[in-house]
């Protein structure tokens, strides 16, 4: 999915240690994808106070809503896109030749590396899902772009919880998806109570998808990411519903995230934008309807480093 904001805000993230176990609500804001008649998503990362959870740097939660997704070809660099559906079907096309429909419980994972373009579309239907980005570390951010689809993911049961491991590992179950930093992404369906084992060196966060759920004694709200800090050996859950559990080793590099690009400096972001505008380095998405998405104008001031926690 693209960031379709016409005046995207500069987002730069610098290393900062997680502060131990905390409970911090990160309230999302609504963003219209493609105009006033398009889908509305709730963006909880980057937030006003915190820009990353591990290497997770972008979260858009959409639906449930009867809508048609129409995201035209657009570029990415330096990141992975993670598409996770609760309901509906979305068709992915990209410039390395991938054509893949994703359904609930399946993972579409696109690694942009040095540069890729893609498009997403769906028929009008009840759509509910989450689009996430993972920042690539400096040593891997120029890898060749590639795409993975995983229809079968590992599932484990802990107490009254059924856990699908999307990325990384949890409780001895490991996703086949390739990750470039230590991280966790899991969908949890809870119908009672459970205690999930965690990696204490990770920072974690929880996002409610449906129902009524408590995490670490705190009720989750739709449209709010609950940041849990680090140092937790386990996590108590209760209620009836579904949530995403995200985590990762605190990201130790400064990054610049602007529009659909992740880089390390203003000049690098400007070069990515120029190449996209000139039709270079991002390939062609064949079969996608509509013209490629034009890049917005750069801000009038240079993009400057700021901390990952404001």
TrEMBL record:
List of residues binding Fe cation: 74, 76, 118, 120
- Where does the Pirin C-terminal domain lie? 195-279
Xref: InterPro entries = Pirin, Pirin_C_dom, Pirin_N_dom, RmlC-like_jellyroll, RmlC_Cupin_sf
Task: Indicate whether Transferase appears among the record's keywords.
Answer: no
Q: The organism sits in which domain of life?
A: Bacteria
Q: Which Gene3D superfamilies match?
A: Jelly Rolls
Family, per entry:
Belongs to the pirin family.
Write down what this protein is called: Pirin
Entry cofactors: Fe cation
GO MF term (any one) = metal ion binding
Q: How is the cofactor bound?
A: Binds 1 Fe cation per subunit.
Which is an annotated Pfam family here? Pirin_C
Q: Does the keyword Metal-binding apply?
A: yes
**Which stretches does the entry tag as region Disordered?**
287-310
